[in-house]
Allantoate deiminase
Amino acid sequence: MVNIERLWDKIHELALIGQTEDNGVTRFSYTKDEHEANELVKQYMEQAGLEVSYDAIGNLIGSTPGKEDLPAILLGSHIDTVPNGGKFDGSLGVLTAIEVMQSLQEQQIRLKHPVKVIAFKDEEGARFGFGLLGSRAVAGRLKDEDLDKKDAKGISIREALINQGYDPEKIETAKMDHVKAYIELHIEQGKVLENQEVPVGNVTGIAGPLWLKVKLEGEAEHAGATPMGQRKDPLVAASLVIAEIEKLASQYPYAVATVGSLSLTPGGINVIPGSVEFTVDIRDISEEIRDQLEKEITDFSIQIGNEREIKVTIEELQRVAPVLCSEDIQSLIMESISELNIPVISLPSGAGHDAMQFNRLFPVGMIFVRSKDGISHNPKEFTSKEDVKAGAETMLKTLIKLDEL
Ligand code: HGY
Ligand code: MN
Ligand code: MN
């Protein structure tokens, strides 16, 4: 059994760090707020009897030895957020893993396998436009040139690391070998569990995000003196592309494509924009369909640029392969859910998660917990105490079963 009151209090205590005026949370990586959040989670891990340290990229890791010298079981998620995000995205997974370990300690249950609980650095990529930083490092997939990605103020990941006392030369030491499996609990961020009226579900696979930055350069000119037929207006061109993106994505059953951020210069009320930049987030469980949609979007962008004498450049920010969850771990999760007398629902994840980085390295499994109205990446993100409890009990059962596997 887990202590749901303790877990519920921690969710709300952590959410106070980086709290926004409409009761959301903004916690970008390598900032004061995120460091403060990590230090609070470090205390939680210590209270759960874990030995806690930061690795070379700033992942916070709480470890406990196993009864035998076996590969470790990893549990975790992230505590960084999107701008003005919710209280549960990522944090619920980290805090639930800590609660499970604290409950095992209190019940004097020692597992055969060592367990590491990890709060992964910069899963969202909200600050640098390049996510899954901590899990890439643990997977040994973070390249030195990745650290050159910059935030809106021109600060690179490398500089942010150094400013917080880390040594970028050492990021390879974050790689973890000798791992048995990884299990992540996360809010669903969609409506499937709510529509099926169940609190938890088993995840079958994770859609892989592809992020592009599209830049359109025209000519900044006088809004009053420039006839309509003589303009090179990149904002009008961008609006045609953005409308087409929606049309192209809608032709596939599961694909999604989102323009989440857009900026233009110079931004004067009486000035035809000179340049426009926007991002596109393209996803599908099928890598082939996702990449086909990418091609259609880039071809259309270039065609519009040619027709309107607008220079179009497209930069890839990140490309993560979709991942299938381990059949064995899925079975353990489904068994655990049915032991709680909850109907077993399996579903794919449209959202990306740290688990994706461990694809082809060791088996991964994910437990989803219901999101009220399917809302996430929004201060209104909510999961009930009962559902949090069901998720934690599912994780506890799954971990004990995995330890026996
Ligand atoms: O973008 C995502 O899917 C996740 O929230 N980082
Ligand atoms: Mn998220
Ligand atoms: Mn998340």
Q: What stands out?
A: The pocket of (2S)-amino(hydroxy)ethanoic acid (ligand 1) is lined by residues 123-124, 131, 209, 351-352 (CB under 6 Å). The chain has two domains: 4-207+322-404, 210-319.
